[in-house]
Amino acid sequence: MELVFVVLIGAVAAVLANLNIAVFNDGLRPIVGEHIEGRLKRRELGLTAFAMSFGLVIGFGIPFTITASIILIHSILLGTDIIGLIAPKNKWGTPVAAVVGGLYGWGLLAGLEGFVALFEKLPVNFLEPMGAVGTPVVVTFMAFPALAVAMQFSVKKGVLTFIVAALVRQLAVFVNESGFISIGGNVISLNQEGMALIAGMIFLFGYAMREKSEDGASVDLASIFSEKVKSIKKNVAFFMVIGALIAGATNLLLMAGDPISLSLLAEGKQTDAGIAAAARAIGFIPLVASTAIATGVYSPVGFTLIFVVGLFSPNVWIAVVVGAIVIFLEVMLLGSIAKFLDKYPGVRNSGENIRSAMTRLIEVALLIGGANASNAIAPGFGFFFIAGFYLLNEIAGRPIVRMAVGPVGAIAVGIIANILVALGIMTIG
């Protein structure tokens, strides 16, 4: 069943990209829109997709997938973006995209099992220390609403949001330690990071909904892009299929939608992972909705609520059904969401700030996590390598995206440590 889910997700996602219906990479959606409008050739579109996504697949998606033994959705859907957009959109190109996309999904799953077996045979099994890469991400992620507020409104409001979120987190810790909340004699523990995240999001959307456009006028997104919204709705059956598949695969704990929930799942905290996924989904609605309405190109994971469905559903078949329904409602409500974003331009404008804030925080967290993992693999040498790797990458103009430096560096340290141990130059206690 696991293999069927992953293969079908790869095949369907590649077809959606090939037909210009949906792509996972947020930055690609406007570019695919340019191609649909005839201003960008297919070859240029394919090369652009490769340039934008390949580094993230290798440096971001796959390292997380290896460290947690759970597929990070980026590793499969960024790859299918490339496969679908490189393949010609014709009677043979689309079937080829489906086959290659399915094989790619199979390769990820099969390769994951092979990687685990390979690591067990190495002189230095660095698979377990690699789990430290994602540890800081879970804790630091709660600060992203404060950063988004500072970027969009003011540093003063951002600091206030940060302080309130930090206080809420510590209050949740106090409540947990005191055992104040109980149901039927069982003490209920609050997720402190989740509570801080919710507090920050309340501040972010509170400020956003108070912001009005400078001239007091509203731009009717739904009317301006009505044809693009119609084209998305026309393909709702495709979205229901892939939404159902991804929700089911998530319920089977085969995959996760972001590094936060993936790290929590790796620790066995499925409920906390669901809460983190829900917070992320709410934060991404303005970005996904705005780019979809403006380009006529949707995301194969929609607003990412299907991951929440998968994590909270009691079994895989309920996850499949509810996942299809949820993504159907998302598509049908796009026009209403556009009207809401018109009414509150601050919310619409917050989408890019939310994305930027998340990216910056994850960059820092992954660098710290990569350094900690590297030092756990090779004490002393790990910190030295990550610091030098980061600085040289910056001086070289960032051939590796910042977000990938920590995970890639940690993998490199693991490989180097094995080589040095095999040569007798290094001993690991």
TrEMBL record:
Transmembrane segments: 6-24, 45-62, 68-87, 96-119, 131-151, 158-175, 187-208, 236-257, 277-309, 316-341, 361-392, 404-428
Keyword Transmembrane helix in annotation: yes
Keyword annotations: Membrane, Transmembrane, Transmembrane helix
InterPro entries with a match to the protein in the record: Uncharacterised_YhfT (IPR019733)
Pfam families on file: YhfT (PF10797)
Keyword Transmembrane helix found: yes
Protein name as catalogued: Permease
